[in-house]
Design goal:
Blueprint lengths: L2 E10 L2 E11 L4 E5 L6 H9 L6 E6 L2 E2 L10 E4 L11 H10 L2 E2 L5 E2 L3 H14 L15 H13 L5 E5 L7 H18 L2 E6 L2 H7 L2 E6 L2 E6 L1 H6 L4 H6 L6 E8 L2 E4 L9 H9 L4 E6 L5 E2 L10 E14 L2 E8 L2 E7 L10 E7 L4 E4 L4 E2 L1
Parallel strand pairs: 3-10, 3-11, 6-9, 9-10
Antiparallel strand pairs: 1-2, 1-4, 4-5, 7-8, 11-12, 13-14, 13-15, 15-21, 16-20, 17-18, 17-20, 18-19, 21-22
Helix pairs in contact: 2-3, 2-4
Length: about 375
């Protein structure tokens, strides 16, 4: 199901929770809505679900305007971080319930599905979700991941046109979260339905989404694939928010026709970076580079023109599995450097690092990226 929003706005008094959001979600895609707390993620999801109605704007399912259609008429599935399972019912009974409760007729006495149809659908769902061995268990006997699978199964069995996920993995541990991410991606490929997934966890978004919509303060900041948001951020917010580590930023300004980096410390920037600054007539701004793309200067190798060389003080060293995460001080500004070298680093020692010109982003004073 293709989903379209046009100038979707939600206000609470003078507070604008969502401001003129325009989205076109392709049929069968997996779209992730990402952003910090209070950015409008859940509000957007609830508007699409019909749990809220917009102050302005329209929502379309395909060509059908469903803006004022109530939630129970939209045939959508919504999965929450808490598992809405009946504790007194077994897994089989929880899966049967949505089909048994669907009735028709003037006084809703006639069931839509026969017992044979319900049994067949339940068996099919149990196999699809790989929970056959838990058929006769109660929710209290299941792990968090198993409960979430049953909760998804209860929605899946109704054959909805659209799946909505509201941070469904928040309540499970890190290892199980990784397994559930893989499982949800596999499920999407199997059922081939449009899925919209809300999270504040950028690594989760990068792993799951075909398309990511990054929100901030109720507005769309950037839409694109995970690679597009990581490699081509439109502004400082995107560059800082996307990635396992926040991007490093160093300020610069022009002084006597020269570029001065970081509080009057004269550093020679690569020519290609200076050309970007000149081409955009920037008097001041910031350069940014990712922690993963920083390298230690090898004194035995020649210095190249496209290198930015910085001499820093090591303030902290953190070892995480095969990685070392160094926090550096460059003229009172912090730089994060991630390396997999086995070399031992000492706190308060000096280190020279390099960043290649192609890994450097330039931002103007307003935080917009310049090219």
């Amino acid at each position: 199901m293709k989903v379209t929003t046009k100038n979707l706005t939600k206000r609470y008094g003078e507070k604008i929770a969502l401001n003129k959001v325009n989205l076109e979600i392709p049929d069968s895609s997996f779209l992730v809505i990402l952003g910090p707390s209070g950015s409008g993620k859940t509000t957007l999801l609830r508007l699409i679900a019909g749990l809220l109605y917009p102050s302005e704007g329209k929502i379309f399912f395909g060509e059908d305007n469903i803006t004022q259609k109530p939630a129970n008429k939209r045939n959508i599935a919504m999965v929450f971080q808490n598992y809405p399972l009946f504790p007194h019912m077994t897994v089989r009974e929880n899966l049967r319930f949505p089909l048994e409760s669907q009735r028709e007729g003037q006084i809703f006495k006639k069931r839509i599905y026969s017992d044979e149809e319900i049994k067949a659908k339940v068996e099919e769902t149990l196999k699809l979700l790989h929970i056959e061995e838990h058929t006769n268990k109660y929710p209290s006997q299941l792990s968090g991941g198993e409960k979430q699978r049953v909760a998804i199964g209860r929605e899946l069995i109704r054959e909805p046109v659209l799946f909505l996920f509201d941070e469904p993995l928040s309540n499970i541990d890190a290892r199980l979260r990784y397994e559930m991410r893989t499982w949800i991606r596999t499920l999407h490929g199997m059922i081939n339905r449009t899925m919209i997934y809300v999270t504040h966890d950028q690594s989760e978004a990068m792993a799951l989404g075909d398309i990511i919509v990054l929100l901030n303060e109720g507005e769309i900041v950037q839409i694109g694939s995970p690679d597009e948001l990581y490699n081509n951020p439109k502004n400082r917010f995107v560059a800082e928010f996307i990635g396992n580590f926040p991007m490093n930023f160093l300020s610069f300004h022009k002084k006597d026709k020269n570029l001065i980096l970081n509080n009057d410390k004269k550093i020679e920037l690569p020519n290609s970076v200076e050309e970007i600054v000149s081409r955009n007539s920037l008097e001041e701004g910031e350069i940014g580079f990712r922690a993963e793309l920083v390298r230690e200067l090898d004194s035995e190798r020649p210095i190249e023109e496209n290198m930015l060389i910085l001499e820093c003080i090591i303030e902290d060293v953190e070892k995480v599995l095969d990685q070392q995460i160094l926090t550096l001080n460059f003229n009172e500004e912090r730089i994060v450097f991630v390396t997999k070298t086995i070399k031992e680093f000492e706190r308060k020692s000096t280190i020279q690092i390099i960043v290649y010109a192609e890994s450097i982003y330039v931002f103007d004073r307003a935080g917009l990226r310049t090219i």
